[in-house]
Give the backbone structure.
Amino acid sequence: MSREMVLAPALRPIVSPRAPVVDRDGAGLFAGCPELIGTPAAYGREEEIFGEGEEAESVYRVLQGAVRTHKVLSDGRRQITGFHLPGDLFGFEPGETHRHTAEALTGTRALVFKRRQVERLATHRAEVACQLWSFATRSLRHAQDHMLLLGRRSALERVAAFMLDVDERLGGTGLFDLPMTRRDIADYLGLTIETVSRTISQLEGEGALLRTGGRQVSLRRGRMHRLVED
Amino acid sequence: MSREMVLAPALRPIVSPRAPVVDRDGAGLFAGCPELIGTPAAYGREEEIFGEGEEAESVYRVLQGAVRTHKVLSDGRRQITGFHLPGDLFGFEPGETHRHTAEALTGTRALVFKRRQVERLATHRAEVACQLWSFATRSLRHAQDHMLLLGRRSALERVAAFMLDVDERLGGTGLFDLPMTRRDIADYLGLTIETVSRTISQLEGEGALLRTGGRQVSLRRGRMHRLVED
DNA sequence: CGTTTCGTTGAGCGGGGTCAAACGACGTGG
DNA sequence: CCACGTCGTTTGACCCCGCTCAACGAAACG
């Protein structure tokens, strides 16, 4: 069941999108469901897709670009709970209202599905319900890994783990453009922008990565990996 | 929506268990599935139920007692990702092996289901698959709330939120026994035992709670709530 | 071009970690 | 029954990692 390529090798670098995502193995969610075709939608940079507290009418699948979902406290403190890249689903809620805000990091295209429709289909077709279950469980695993990071890892470990993660999701070449700002990284890792910046400098000083202009970085994945270690 | 009875009022104080949990609204997982009856099992205090890396053969439902699931780093740093009380399910994994260790906090009884059996049933009966999906989604929401806590809240807020949470799950009377040690609390909140202890003292100093002997505490829920504030 | 946002770097501080000691609640055996 | 050891908890003293505040350079954008 772990084998499900929803967010695996079909992924493309986010800031330079190319071909639309294809379900290479046919296991993608809602595949083989002609009665459930999402309607395409496009969002501009920093555009809100849905807000916390709004009624959860739709669920989304990223085609191109990147999306962040986050929660905020009344005083402005923000925690980003996930970045969603092509192939990823987001917007599922256990209840009637969204518990997150979702925003496009960059120009983004997505398929929009009616939640009610998805739910109705799930109650009729076990296959669809299983896919939803599988998706939720994988999200849960990510969330649990991230709890360990937020609760127990140092700033250096957090940033190193983050870099490796982004690299992997963007192709694993070791050379990529970060699709998000320092603020986004900080709010994802539970740090401040200054600490993220300083930590990246430190990683560069230790030869674990190279800043190659703009937001592009080149990782020494061996050294990087040693910093995360388990 | 937040009202979903799997872990709500049917719950009993953990350390003084009474009647076995009943699905008051019939929404409990695997309800109405005579072909899937879990086999009862009992675990002693601090006993391991399954370990990280082991093959995931079974899934569990707590009947009585309490269970913690956690992840550890090679150097011993530990993050508890959840406490599981009567009615709760745990042990689901997206893959073939457990990504967590599960241990009984106290003497605990649980129902054990064969994972393969559950999965097979889910592929045939949409109803079961939907329940699994719903369960996973609720767990995900908890995980996301906890990420916000770990990433962005102060020690005071964490402990206060924790106390309110435990109180609610244990009946919401404002008076209860903590079923876990300071170390467990610390590893759940991303703090140290000393900080947890000091913070509880501080809360007592501010009149937000009273330590009434042993692990029993009495909350001033109004003041407590003000400290968490969104 | 000016203006604004983003990123980097420095100086200083403080919340929470570390190390250490003492206390209380147990259970155990003399 | 009490001396003793164990384990969990509390409290103190000190320190350090990451936060705050601030200045400045570099892109992005009008």
